[in-house]
Amino acid sequence: MSPAPPDWNHALRSARQLADLALDFDCAATMPLDPAARLAMAEAALVGVGNPSSTHGKGQAGRALVEWARRQLAEALGIAPRELALTSGATEANALAWRGALEPMLAAGRSPAVLTSVVEHASVRALTAEYRARGLPVVELAVDGRGCWLTDDLAGRLEGLDLGFASLILVNNETGVVHPVAQVAHAARTRGAIVHADATQALGRLAVEPATLGVDLLTLSGHKFGAPCGTGALWVRPGAKVYAIQPGHQELGLRGGTENVLGLVGLGAAAVTLGARLAQSPSVRALRDQLLAGLLALGAVRNADLPAEQESGHIANVSLPGLDAPRLVMALDLAGVAVSAGSACASGTLEPSHVVRSMFGTDTTGEARARGAVRWSLGPHHDRVAVERALAVTAEVVGRLRQGKATRH
Ligand SMILES: Cc1ncc(COP(=O)(O)O)c(C=O)c1O
Predict the structure, then answer these.
(1) Whose CA is nearest to atom 13 of ligand 1?
(2) Whose CA is nearest to atom 8 of ligand 1?
(3) Which residues are the active-site residues?
(4) Are 97 and 237 in contact (CB under 8 A)?
(5) Domain-located, residue 298
(6) Are residues 326 and 348 in the same domain?
(7) Longest dimension (CA), the chain
(8) pLDDT tens per residue, range 174-200
(9) Cβ–ligand 1 contact at 121 (below 6 Å)
(10) Ligand 1, pocket-test mutation among 118, 119, 173, 315, most atoms within 8 A of CB
(11) Residue 386 covered by a domain
């Protein structure tokens, strides 16, 4: 075996130091790798398969692993394997859905309207901005103060429009709000639109059945349910008119390029755990409630305060009056607790996320609430002890911040 490349030990050590957070409450950003996925990937790496598109035996060994993964995911979703285009994640699947549906309409001289909402993931917000800039009319569902879509006047707003496409988030990644996708999808499909749902945060938390949701395209991401980062899929309803954005023979002809064989093996192995994850979601919710109660006792206010059936149960989005989210998130990180201000894609900026901002008014109180919003998210690996420890650390950090200091433990 050849020695490790020069910087590898250093890179691994610093990654370990940074990642070795005892208390990771940022599962909506990425879920820890499932042990089954870890093992399957390690075993597959030792086999040393070839390019799945090669016709020789080594290539076919790679093809067999990719197709195994596709079957596991299809089985977990109750669909046929040939309906899944495997991708590098949800961002790519979202782009494939949008471009795959809209570009042919544009090429045919249409200027179709798009229906979406103001609380979509950043990847969909970026696509919305792009197609709006290219001249397409966009109808956006606004939200109320609890993060729920306002749909009362939908029919009126769509009247007279040539609706071509709808893109709707099923479970919000910052608040956990479960949106009425089936209802809005029905309204859009009866007007002839291709309907896409982003179910990235829903898998393993809600029973997701693509075929009965009433949509044509469905996005999912592996690293939200125990697969490695950089894996995901777009489900394409048989007969849906979607075109390739990266031509190639792979992945239903929609997504050219050599498949990420090892990552997809991890995706397949994690897909097998989806049923168990769903079965554990009531206990994740109970832990989330325990965490929420503790945060409220520290003076926090809950954002998107909804009854259980309207939210996913894995997220607690709260604001602590007087404390800005970036400061709190950083102080908690120094104390060994990982949480986030907004989605992983929006963090790194000091701006409150567009989701919490859209829920609150632009007056001083609304702005302060949005600026303080912190997302805590949980998974099946958490237990009561972890929640108690996180709350104890948080109480101490909040106390210190309120007195104006923060130190590393
Ligand atoms: C709702 C939603 N859509 C899309 C994405 C992007 O997923 P990926 O990291 O797989 O590109 C995320 C990730 O946070 C998400 O929560």
Answers:
(1) 29
(2) 90
(3) 345
(4) no
(5) yes
(6) yes
(7) 67
(8) 999 999 999 999 999 999 999 999 999
(9) yes
(10) 173
(11) yes
120 lines ligand 1 (CB under 6 A): no
| Non-local CB neighbours of 275 within 8 Å, separated by 6+ positions | 76
Mutate-to-test residue for ligand 1 from 120, 125, 223, 224, highest number of ligand atoms within 8 A of CB = 224
The token duo for 359 is: 């829920």
User: Can you tell me the distance from the alpha carbon of 98 to that of 248, in angstroms, rounded to the nearest whole number?
Assistant: 18
pLDDT digits (tens, 9 = 90+) for 1-23: 677 787 888 888 877 776 666 79
Which of 272, 299, 332 finishes a domain? 272
187 and 264 inside one domain: yes
Find out whether 171 and 178 touch, Cβ atoms under 8 Å: yes
Span from the CA of 317 to the centroid of ligand 1 (angstroms): 17
Task: Let me know whether 80 and 142 are in one domain.
Answer: yes
Q: Is residue 363 part of a domain?
A: yes
Centroid of ligand 1 to alpha carbon of 221 (angstroms): 7
pLDDT tens-digit series, residues 396-407:
999 999 997 544
* Cα dihedral 68→221→239→156 (10° resolution): 160
Which phi and psi angles does 364 have, rounded to 5°?
-60, -40
Distance 248 CA to ligand 1 centre (A): 24
pLDDT band at 349 (very low <50, low <70, confident <90, very high): low
Q: Does residue 251 sit in the same domain as residue 373?
A: no
Element holding 263 (H helix, E strand): helix 261-272
**Ligand 1: distance of its center to the CA of 224 in Å?**
8
Taking residue 141's Cβ as centre, other Cβ atoms within 10 Å add up to: 22
Whether the CB of 201 sits within 6 Å of ligand 1: yes
Q: Is residue 36 one of the residues assigned to a domain? A: no
Q: Cα torsion at 235, 237, 242, 246 (round to 10°)?
A: 30
CA atoms within 13 A on the CB side of 293: 9
Asked whether 343 lines ligand 1 (CB < 6 A), one says: yes
For residue 8, how many C-alpha atoms fall within 13 Å in the half-sphere facing its CB? Answer: 5
Rounded to the nearest angstrom, the distance between the alpha carbon of 87 and the centre of ligand 1 is 12
Name the residue among 251, 252, 179, 260 with its Cα closest to residue 222. 260
